[in-house]
Amino acid sequence: MSPALQRDIAKTNRTFEEAVTSGDMSALDAVYTVDARILPPGAAMVSGRENIKQFWQAAIAGLNVGSIQLETVDFTLSGDTGYEIGRATLNFATDGVPPMIAKYVVVWKQEDGAWKWHVDIWNPNA
Amino acid sequence: MSPALQRDIAKTNRTFEEAVTSGDMSALDAVYTVDARILPPGAAMVSGRENIKQFWQAAIAGLNVGSIQLETVDFTLSGDTGYEIGRATLNFATDGVPPMIAKYVVVWKQEDGAWKWHVDIWNPNA
After folding, report:
1. Most buried in the list A88, A106, B120, B122, measured by CB within 10 Å?
2. What is the ipTM of this complex?
């Protein structure tokens, strides 16, 4: 992975983390492609960025998520897409609730010159 | 997706289904690349085909899985890889246990001229 690509990937991931902390879902325009799909555990697939923004807004409020950290374990570029294996740590804003460790696969795609999440699936480690 | 690719993808998926029904994990040599990784819900990532075979052997026995059906929802070719979004139905051999519906993302890669699963992650719909 080139330093430029590494920087682009990290920028998008940091934008997601900031959106979760701030609760400002409009920031997800810079994270997901317009026709992205997410596959959340315990729910059906959600298609389209606007529906994905609604999903995250409800999930963050429902679970009382305080912050999230994403760590790229592996990124492979292939053609005009790439796929990432990563590790996520969810920190809850509720006292006494321990962080949740999850792992994820994201298929990345360029949209308007920026690398974004095109397919996003995750599950908890425990 | 070309008819030839569609046939290759379906063949690998049918091989997985047959391996689950028969319990013969050696068939997974034709399903996973040698350095494949799986990301199962409730467990850490498992790396390498031999470890993956052990995972499935234990999971099929532990959950008393009778059969599995895979349905490709979407397949996108990109460079020398492809990614699939799919739906899986797990049928249990225990009386009265209802089937489990899951969704998955598989990153495909060619190995020895055959299309195989290189990264495999899934989670339950409910």
Report:
1. A106
2. 0.96
